[in-house]
């Protein structure tokens, strides 16, 4: 949420009211809709630019252009008349003034996508849960009975829209709660700590993201507190941070602050020390 929200604000500051000239698909599989076709966006003014969950939402009269960057997607602000097709390019959106917006992917994953939505069509947005600062989410945290593990629950966009892996690590660390606990197992005070941690971590991250200029750089997450920092001292207690590794990601936590001294075994070993 913080990266995409701040990015939406920067795009709006530069391009509010600009007319879209052309949206050029640079990767065939990345366009997820057929109707309306992208050329129906041409000539329409951009206003406003927003965000829903991890989706960037460009409103153009009655149509909307959605962009989801996934893990490796980034947006580059292009100045001047650029016509090249860089490696990993997904989409180029030109307006009647600079900058153009180039969506490209870094790394090997190719999961970034874009949608053109007509009136009254929310497309993939219909599957999203509440926003992290909404009353609906607060009620879910304080009253919910979800029995799944907290870390995947926070990452589940159907439960709450906009929290990813890194922020889930930082949120649970700040709350002092194991990533393997469930919402149903939490006492009221723990639930409040979790909700407060969601709000404070995302607020602080948004403040950092708003200092950026231009698009999104290849490397993000330089302001994470514990995410991807296994083996370094916990910023709260000084104990070594540990990790649980999965095929596509890892969970970072502090045994001293979050699990009562218990070490959760690396999932690559297919075992768990309880």
Low-confidence stretches: 270-274
Taking the sheet with the most strands, its summary is: 4 strands, antiparallel
Radius of gyration: 20 Å
Average pLDDT metric? 93
Looking across the biggest beta sheet, what order are the strands in?
1-6-7-5
- Global outline: elongated
Explain what you see.
The strands form 3 sheets. The protein has a 4-stranded antiparallel β-sheet, with no helix packed on it. A hairpin with a 4-residue loop joins strand 6 and strand 7. With 274 residues, it is of the alpha+beta class. It has helices at 2-15, 135-143, 150-155, 165-175, 188-209, 255-258, and strands at residues 20-25, 46-52, 55-60, 63-68, 73-78, 89-95, 100-105, 113-117, 242-245, 250-253. The chain starts with a helix and ends in a 16-residue tail after the last helix. The chain is built from 6 helices and 10 strands.
Helix-strand layout with pairing:
Layout: H1 2-15, E1 20-25, E2 46-52, E3 55-60, E4 63-68, E5 73-78, E6 89-95, E7 100-105, E8 113-117, H2 135-143, H3 150-155, H4 165-175, H5 188-209, E9 242-245, E10 250-253, H6 255-258
Features:
274 residues; alpha+beta; four-stranded antiparallel beta sheet; 6 helices; disordered C terminus
